[in-house]
């Protein structure tokens, strides 16, 4: 163990996830080598990065005697889908709150596609909440917890995206796993690129990079927040996690880079760059990205390579954080783009 704090953990992921060589894509981009870290291949609930965090959240929930976990996310939240599936795997109930900008939604007439459909199939208690701000997210979580306690349940709250110090531990492990794979392949990357949403994943990768004294650039492509806010939260969570684990590590502000140039019309509103990235990745490698996170992150990475901001003379690593089920909730937009692109 690389830290001296005993944390409960339930193993949800068997073995390291693949680090694929994406040679066709690298040639298309004009770079020396591209690797894709396949954290979409984590098994439970159609896979995704949040399982790394849930290994620690669910263990802590059980340790505290909880019988239900509660979390919140966007309408096509990968985090809520994986929370529902992993909770069922370990014998817990799951209440998932889906944020909406609409004040009144009829659950029975809502369009259940993608992640919402999967959460419903897995027996999650799905609730919609008008929660347009982070403050309202916390309020929605607390209200749901109070409701469950009133019904005799013992709830455990997981924050949006699993973004707190405990959640960061999951991707500290993920970052160290990636580092081991790079050593085995004798690869020293120029950059590691991933989507930046609630920032927990990027924070864990940052902590691993600094702990192991790795020299690559760590680049987050924001999917919804401005880069100043995203960077502040990334650094804060990485430092809070290091303090919690009593790790002797120096995290400098310039150890992570965040770009907010690819936000388009906003969170979960795919741009043409995002859709092009999804098509290009699938056509080159048979790998499916999603329209909210990995599509946007890959679109940003492609643009940075075109601009020579990422040189590509040394290998580049892209973290595939999952989210494939969301493709089906955006099918009309995707089909419109695909047919127009091929005309």
Structural summary, described in words:
- The protein is 43% helix and 15% strand.
- It contains 11 helices and 10 strands.
- The chain has helices at residues 23-29, 50-63, 78-89, 114-121, 134-150, 165-184, 200-211, 227-244, 272-285, 294-306, 331-342, and strands at 19-21, 34-38, 68-73, 93-100, 125-130, 155-157, 191-196, 217-222, 257-259, 316-320.
- The mean pLDDT is 94.
Can you summarize this structure?
The protein has 343 residues and is an alpha/beta fold. 43% of the residues lie in helices and 15% in strands.
Which terms would index this structure?
343 residues; alpha/beta; 4-stranded parallel beta sheet; 10 strands
Give me the secondary-structure topology.
Elements: E1 19-21, H1 23-29, E2 34-38, H2 50-63, E3 68-73, H3 78-89, E4 93-100, H4 114-121, E5 125-130, H5 134-150, E6 155-157, H6 165-184, E7 191-196, H7 200-211, E8 217-222, H8 227-244, E9 257-259, H9 272-285, H10 294-306, E10 316-320, H11 331-342
Parallel strand pairs: 2-10, 3-4, 3-6, 4-5, 7-8, 7-10, 8-9
Antiparallel strand pairs: 1-2
Helix pairs in contact: 1-9, 2-3, 2-6, 3-4, 6-7, 6-8, 7-8, 9-10
């Amino acid at each position: 163990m690389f830290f001296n704090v005993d944390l409960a953990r339930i193993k949800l992921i068997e073995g390291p996830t693949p680090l694929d060589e994406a040679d066709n894509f690298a040639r298309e981009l004009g770079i020396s080598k591209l690797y894709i870290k396949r954290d979409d291949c984590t098994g439970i609930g159609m896979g995704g990065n949040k399982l790394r965090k849930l290994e620690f959240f669910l263990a802590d929930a059980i340790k505290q005697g909880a019988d239900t976990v509660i979390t919140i996310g966007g309408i096509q939240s990968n985090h809520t889908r994986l929370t529902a599936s992993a909770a069922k795997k370990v014998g817990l109930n799951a209440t998932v709150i889906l944020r909406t900008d609409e004040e009144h939604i009829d659950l029975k007439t809502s369009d259940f596609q993608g992640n919402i459909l999967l959460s419903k199939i897995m027996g999650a208690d799905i609730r919609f909440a008008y929660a347009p701000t982070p403050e309202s997210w916390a309020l929605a979580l607390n209200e749901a917890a109070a409701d469950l306690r009133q019904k005799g349940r013992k709830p455990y709250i997981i924050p949006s995206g699993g973004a707190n110090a405990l959640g960061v531990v999951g991707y500290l492990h993920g970052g160290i796993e990636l580092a081991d794979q790079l050593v085995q392949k004798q690869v020293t990357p120029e950059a590691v690129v991933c989507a930046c949403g609630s920032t927990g994943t990027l924070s864990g990768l940052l902590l691993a990079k600094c702990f192991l004294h790795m020299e690559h650039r760590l680049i987050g492509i924001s999917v919804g927040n401005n880069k100043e806010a995203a960077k502040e939260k990334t650094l804060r969570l990485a430092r809070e996690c290091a303090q919690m684990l009593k790790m002797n590590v120096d995290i400098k502000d310039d150890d992570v880079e965040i770009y907010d140039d690819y936000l388009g019309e906003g969170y979960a509103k795919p741009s043409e760059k995002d859709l092009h990235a999804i098509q290009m990745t699938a056509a080159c490698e048979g790998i499916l990205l999603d329209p909210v996170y990995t599509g946007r992150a890959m679109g940003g990475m492609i643009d940075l390579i075109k601009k020579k901001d990422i040189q590509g003379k040394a290998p580049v690593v892209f973290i595939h954080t999952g989210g494939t089920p969301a493709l089906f909730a955006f099918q009309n937009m995707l089909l419109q783009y695909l047919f127009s692109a091929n005309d």
